[in-house]
């Protein structure tokens, strides 16, 4: 089995906002009504995180559990935990009406770090989101210039962002350029 | 610039995060329908100046389809409601009656 590599092999852009292509993690999409406690309990039990409410994301270490829609959740884990999480979820879900899909290789994951205002400014330039009011603990699926993406702030001073792997270079270049130049905030 | 609120994920965002899906509450005519009904389903659309009902999709967000009611002249939104219905909710219709007395759209008034 070949070793997984991230889309841009750990590329980094230094500047007022540091942009880093993160090493591969396990990303699992679970589709199924999140009003069904059998599904949310399976997610909580496998991840060790409480299932967040509408547009929420729970974070602990490298683990993330996100509300992506009324019938979609995203679980991010260290890559080594992929197989155990997939089988654990399938087992815990039992006969619940749900689908578990390994999306680990489908997306690129970036971490942006820097001064809070500079970070918010960078995102505000590329997404139609009111970054003045964007709170930690919320995930926003949106448009990043011409591509779809999602981001959240695990804590002040850090933004994590995902997009499809096929557009990773576009996202990296877009963010790197947005990070320099005139400031709005 | 239109600003919509998605009833499925609660996000309020401008229209480039969404995609318009045309007129709402069409009846799909297919095999067994007569020619006039099929023609109407394929080609005939409302084009009102005023109250209008549309389908929209939160294409860059949660991905869900939903319904919306707005005024095509003022661009005021009256409300957003789930896709899983064949008619606007009564509370929304009542709100439009208050704001636009005498309005009519197809069989709704
Ligand atoms: Zn939505």
TrEMBL record, chain A:
Database matches in InterPro entries: SoxG (IPR007375), TrmE/GcvT-like (IPR027266)
Name of the protein: Sarcosine oxidase subunit gamma
Biological source species: Primorskyibacter flagellatus
From TrEMBL, chain B:
Domain of life where this protein originates: Bacteria
Pfam families: SoxD
Signal peptide: none
GO BP annotation list: tetrahydrofolate metabolic process
MF-aspect GO terms: sarcosine oxidase activity
Protein name: Sarcosine oxidase subunit delta
Gene name linked to the record: soxD
């Amino acid at each position: 089995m070949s070793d997984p590599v991230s889309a841009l092999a750990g590329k980094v852009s230094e500047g007022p906002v540091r942009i880093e292509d993160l090493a591969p993690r396990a990303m699992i999409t679970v589709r199924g009504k999140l009003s069904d406690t059998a599904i949310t309990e399976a997610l909580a039990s496998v991840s060790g995180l409480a299932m967040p409410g509408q547009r929420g994301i729970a974070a602990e270490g490298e683990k993330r559990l996100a509300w992506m829609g009324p019938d979609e959740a995203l679980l991010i884990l260290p890559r080594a935990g992929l197989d155990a999480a997939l089988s654990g979820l399938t087992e815990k879900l039992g006969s619940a009406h749900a689908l578990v899909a390994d999306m680990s290789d489908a997306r690129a994951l970036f971490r942006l770090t820097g001064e809070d205002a500079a970070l918010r400014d960078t995102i505000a330039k590329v997404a139609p989101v009111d970054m003045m009011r964007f709170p930690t603990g919320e995930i926003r699926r949106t448009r990043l210039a011409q591509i779809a993406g999602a981001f959240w702030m695990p804590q002040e001073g850090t933004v994590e962002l995902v997009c499809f792997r096929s557009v990773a270079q576009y996202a990296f270049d877009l963010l790197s350029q947005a990070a320099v130049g005139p400031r709005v905030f | 610039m239109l600003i919509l609120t998605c009833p499925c994920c609660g996000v309020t965002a401008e229209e480039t995060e969404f995609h318009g899906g045309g007129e709402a509450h069409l009846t799909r005519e297919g095999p067994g329908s007569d020619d006039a009904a099929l023609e109407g389903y394929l080609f005939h659309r409302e084009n009102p100046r005023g109250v209008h009902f549309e389908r929209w999709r939160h294409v860059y967000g949660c991905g869900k389809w939903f319904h919306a009611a707005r005024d095509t002249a003022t661009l005021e939104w009256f409300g957003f409601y789930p896709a899983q219905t064949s008619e606007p909710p009564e509370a929304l219709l009542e709100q439009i009656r208050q704001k636009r007395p005498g309005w009519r759209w197809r069989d709704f008034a």
